[in-house]
Structures are given as structure tokens and as C-alpha cells.
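Recall that a protein's primary structure is simply its ordered list of amino acids. Everything else, from secondary elements to tertiary packing, is in principle encoded there. The following example makes that idea concrete.
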Amino acid sequence: MPAVEAVIFDLDGLILDSETPEYLAWQAVYARYGLEFPRAAWLQNVGRNDDPFDPLGPFRRADSLPTPAEVAALWQAQRDAVLRDYLVPLPGVVPLLDAVRRLGMRTGVASATRLARVRAILMKLGLEAQFDVLAGGDEAERSKPAPDVYLLAARRLRVRPEACVALEDSENGVRAATSAGMRCIAVPSPLTRGMDFSGADLIVASLTELTPEMITALAGRLRA
């Protein structure tokens, strides 16, 4: 087995771009009611499941004409209308999975989203058989940026965290992976490019640029 024994993928923004449809839907909903959607505040939620920013906040006021339930339903409809065009693996995902598995590395997903959604998305993408284990945010006591979901994935892989390399698109995800004792490669999405990725061991613009050799090159740091 190579010194890097496993590669653990984030899901949203890394395997598929589900973040852009969510953002576009909120932007459209806010515009409908004459509001500007606060992108910077919303980005706090990316990579975690405890949602420190509440996008329904303006509609929870007593003087709000649409109710939070009405706004949430409108957002769901807007997102679903856009999401169909984004339900494809991001460039580089499939070739990288094939390559690392050929080298004998195990593969997993560690996502902030619930496990049932992780499974459903991977099935729609035809990628479920490419991963040895899955770990969802609803199975972890604490959300990213805490390391819990990454540690869970490593336990299920039966691989020491320090022998894992994580792939992440968000600052919260990078912090979670490195806190778990893993090396982390950041692959910023169009929405997360302005985040602080200084904690990552490597930053690439796209998974199309990432090779198994670049991943195994981190082995020296892993051994140290």
C-alpha cells in the first residue's frame, strides 16, 4: 500500500457544484422581495451543517408579509429548477477516483450534509461504487470545522487519520480535515475562492490539475 492509504472527498462544491444553485436561488428570492442577499454572510454556512447564518432571518420579523415557510418553499422551487443542470460530477472527479483506486488507495466521503443525501446524490451521479465508505454530518456530534466527520470516515476506512489526504473546497472543511490530523488539498469553487486556505497543504484550481503523484507527494509530510 502507498504511504497515503486513503483519499477522503468532501461532497458539495467538490464532487458536484450544489452550492451555486443554492446561492442563485437565495439571490432570486431576496430580489423578489426587494432585498439584496448577503453573500459573505451566507458563505459562513458553506462546509458546515449548523448554519450560523439564517437566510430566513429577514422573514421572521413580525412585520414580514411572506412567512418563513412561504419563503422556504419558494427557495426550494427556485433551487430545484436550477439544480438539474448541476447534477453532474465536477471536472476531474471521475478520472481522479479511477487513478487513486488503481494505486490501491481507499476512498471515502466526509460531508457536512446528512448521510441519506450523500448516498442519494452519489447514486444519481453513478459514483456510489467508487467510495469504500461514507460519513455524513448528521452522524457526527459536531459540524465542520470540528474534525468529527473526518475522524468517523477514517475509522470506517480503518486507516489512521495521518495516512489520509482530504480534498476540500471550503475553509471550514480544510480546518476540519487538518484538525483531524489529515493533510488537506484545497480545491476552491467559484463561490469559495475568496476564503482563507492558508491551512491547506496544497491548493489547486481544479481537480483536473490534481494527480495521484501530487497526493502521494504529501507522504513525506505524513510520515513526519
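The chain is about 40% helix and 10% strand. Residues 9 and 109 are 5 Å apart (CA to CA).
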